[in-house]
């Protein structure tokens, strides 16, 4: 059974389960039927005010996502360069992670307008995730690649473009995917409490007050679907970014921007190993091994995996 069939089967199963419990409970105020929720879903989809609310909520989510991603990546990168900043951010990050979201919303409601509160709350919730991932990604180091960069005199900018960014990319991709769903939840929750004029959260609040529970379910489904759609758009964005980055690398290394330094071999250069020995856990990897690596001579060492070729190269 492939994944698509399993996915369709799971949807059918939970739909039938929902239908079964709605029949058993037999109370639309507690659990409305799937048919009534579907009818309200499609009726809301053509209402002008509802679509306007949807557009405003989507805009708030976009703003919160952009602000938290930009600030998280910026400060995460700066903290890898200036260690004092990392200690400076530890206390506020601990506070942000611990403070209840509802408290933030109620406090900020006194400072900002109801339209801005959902964005502020979502940024506050997602910023620590983006910051931590950016810091982990940009601070990751590959000692061997660093040595290669030193030998070939790779500039700091080139190291950032072609070494740091690829390492950080996977950290940032996971963080953005997780933040996307988190931001939708935070914005919707903040809209319920702050009640802006046009917002999906305000629609939830209004329908709950007048006991239109079926429409509460319908709006919730809208929010879930929009969150799912946002994550898919994000994946498409990363796919396009990956192709762009690959083309940029090809263009850069084939252009005059990148030139390897001229490694002069005018002086005589050779490496001589004489009675070379390496012992590990009471076993000799190399014992009385001798070899000359002369200038302008290619020497190939062929041996099974695990024999010590890399160990020899590291030593040389």
Q: What features would you highlight for this structure?
A:
two-stranded antiparallel sheet; elongated; 7% strand; 316 residues
Protein model, in words:
By secondary structure, this protein is mainly alpha-helical. The chain folds into three domains: 1-27; 32-254, MetI-like (MetI-like fold, Orthogonal Bundle), CATH 1.10.3720.10; 271-315, no CATH class. Helices cover 71% and strands 7% of the residues. It contains eleven helices and two strands. It has helices spanning 3-25, 34-44, 48-81, 83-98, 101-111, 117-139, 143-151, 156-194, 200-209, 213-254, 309-315, and strands spanning 271-280, 283-293. A hairpin with a 2-residue loop joins β1 (271-280) and β2 (283-293). It is elongated and about 90 Å long. The two termini are 53 Å apart.
Outline:
By secondary structure, the protein is mainly alpha-helical.
For this structure, the quaternary state is single chain
Order of helices and strands: HHHHHHHHHHEEH
Overall structural domain count: 3
**What's the architecture of the largest domain in CATH terms?**
Orthogonal Bundle
Helices and strands in order, then pairings?
Elements: H1 3-25, H2 34-44, H3 48-81, H4 83-98, H5 101-111, H6 117-139, H7 143-151, H8 156-194, H9 200-209, H10 213-254, E1 271-280, E2 283-293, H11 309-315
Antiparallel strand pairs: 1-2
């Amino acid at each position: 059974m492939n994944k698509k069939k399993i996915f369709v089967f799971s949807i059918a199963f939970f739909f039938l389960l929902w239908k079964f419990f709605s029949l058993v409970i037999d109370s639309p105020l507690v659990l409305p039927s799937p048919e009534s929720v579907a009818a309200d879903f499609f009726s809301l989809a053509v209402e002008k005010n509802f679509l306007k609310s949807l557009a405003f909520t989507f805009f708030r989510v976009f703003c919160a996502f952009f602000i938290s991603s930009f600030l998280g990546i910026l400060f995460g990168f700066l903290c890898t360069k200036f260690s004092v900043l990392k200690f400076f951010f530890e206390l506020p990050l601990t506070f942000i992670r611990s403070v209840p979201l509802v408290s933030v919303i109620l406090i900020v409601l006194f400072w900002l307008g109801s339209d801005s509160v959902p964005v502020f709350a979502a940024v506050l919730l997602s910023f620590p995730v983006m910051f931590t991932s950016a810091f982990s990604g940009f601070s990751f180091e590959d000692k061997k690649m660093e040595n290669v960069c030193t030998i070939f005199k790779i500039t700091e900018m080139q190291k950032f473009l072609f070494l740091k960014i690829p390492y950080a990319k996977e950290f940032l991709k996971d963080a953005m995917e997780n933040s996307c769903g988190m931001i939708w939840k935070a914005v919707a929750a903040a809209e319920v409490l702050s009640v802006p004029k046009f917002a999906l959260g305000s629609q939830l609040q209004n329908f709950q007050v007048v006991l239109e529970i079926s429409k509460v379910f319908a709006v919730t489904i809208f929010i879930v679907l929009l969150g799912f759609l946002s994550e898919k758009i994000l994946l498409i964005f990363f796919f396009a970014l990956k192709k762009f980055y690959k083309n940029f690398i090809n263009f850069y290394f084939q252009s005059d921007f990148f030139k390897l330094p001229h490694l002069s071999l005018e002086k005589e250069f050779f490496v001589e190993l004489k009675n070379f020995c390496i012992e590990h856990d009471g076993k000799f990897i190399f014992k009385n091994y001798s070899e000359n690596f002369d200038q302008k001579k290619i020497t190939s060492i062929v041996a099974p995996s695990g024999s010590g070729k890399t160990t020899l190269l590291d030593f040389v």
